[in-house]
Amino acid sequence: PILYSYFRSSCSWRVRIALALKGISYDLVPVNLIKDGGQQFSAEFKAVNPMQQVPALKIDGITLSQSLAIINYLEETRPIPRLLPQDPKKRAQVRMIADHIASGIQPLQNLGILKQIGEKKTEWAQNCITSGFQALEQILQHTAGQYCVGDEVSMADLCLAPQVANAERFKVDMGPYPTITRINKALLELEAFKVSHPSRQPDTPAELRA
Fold this sequence. Notes:
Elements: E1 2-5, H1 10-21, E2 27-30, H2 43-48, E3 56-59, E4 62-65, H3 67-77, H4 88-104, H5 111-117, H6 121-143, H7 155-169, H8 178-187, H9 191-195
Helix pairs in contact: 1-3, 1-7, 4-6, 4-7, 5-6, 7-8
């Protein structure tokens, strides 16, 4: 497998966690979203992913983009350890939380949007994350055990940790979100989350390395 990734991309981090949890080794091709006006806009990368976004994963003779689609494919083809619960209700809750983050928070504060916002980008990002986290904190109070849904790491957790990292980057006050904070702390102690962390990637700048 070949993963096209950017160290700081939260969507790329989701996929790196999934690959680590499932023990899938891969070659990493860094795509710098800032350098050269954004390497994702090159003709070479557009041939890999016409949406010009990371991550993209070449695996089993196909090329996939969109982090949740990639994670779902890995789950269906390499189901151990599972990232979706067997119980249909819990499975729906996992998908709900993953979508809440991947559709309802992250795209509103990603690089492309913040470029358009300009000077007020930090305030914009904080507002988007805060409104999303207010809802997420309430949801997790009903679904969480040790992790987002019960006591097994799921696709929801793969979305949560990178989004908390974004929140911290934009200096969001995490005080009102004790459940999110607790789960994130537990996740960051797991090896798969450590090795896939933005501070430990081949393309991480020296000053941001762990």
